[in-house]
Amino acid sequence: MRLMATVSQWIEGARLRTFPNAIAPVLAGTGAAAGVDSFDPLIALLALVVALSLIIGVNFANDYSDGIRGTDDSRVGPFRLVGSRSARPASVRNAAFACFGVAAVSGLGVVALSGQWWMLAIGALCIAGAWFYTGGSKPYGYAGLGEVAVFVFFGLVAVLGTMFVQAGTVSGFGIGAAVGVGSLSCAVLVANNLRDIPSDRVTGKRTLAVMLGDRDTRTFYTALALVPFVITVLIGLRNSWVLLGFLALPLLLIPLRAVIRGATGRYLIPAVRDTGFAMLAWGAITGAALAFG
Question: Which GO MF term does the entry hold, naming one (predicted)?
């Protein structure tokens, strides 16, 4: 039987709900660069293309790798192309590689415009990290290191890299924004993995949530979700406009309540989505405050 996913299924497989993980760090990093009078719209746009291409690529790569391992056979979460038998594994893998190619070309444009050629190595590391999260013979996402990678790549590297290629430097405010975005990005993954603890245990996928267990994972999520607002207070001592970041806090109330009250399975799907929206709001508001405050 020939497998042929529809356009809408491919779009769903790209997981648009994860896009805040790519957009928020670029907004925050660009705002930090503008705060030191170094905003470059073309570099910022290319950085956004890099981030979006990587997030789509890693989503397709995870779909492929988890699918061929059978990890997605009983998953509660969003639609998967390979796990649902809607697309051939090779097609999903090739889509991932195509996205990584777009990220590489866009990243080449970034380093050419900024003159920071050494950052080609950072770009290569990001692509390798995206693939080996669930790919290869020993994926680090199956060894409880997914949250570390998300914090590093979609927090520190994405925010500070976006700032550095525009400004040629990083600031304390930029580091704070990177930690805040990275923490919320981790919280998205923690909520996702909390939902998948039962199925991941069955398939042998040892995420950090599986290692910590249900109760401690919920505590970890809560701590991660609150870190950015501690940073908001600290940066707000120097730039009062950053305190507007608290406007993102109401977006976290519902997912926090769901996690704290013990929601499981499909009832955690909205928590993953809403945490992403809160991250996008916090990153956008903080970036704007750093730029204009």
Answer: 1,4-dihydroxy-2-naphthoate polyprenyltransferase activity
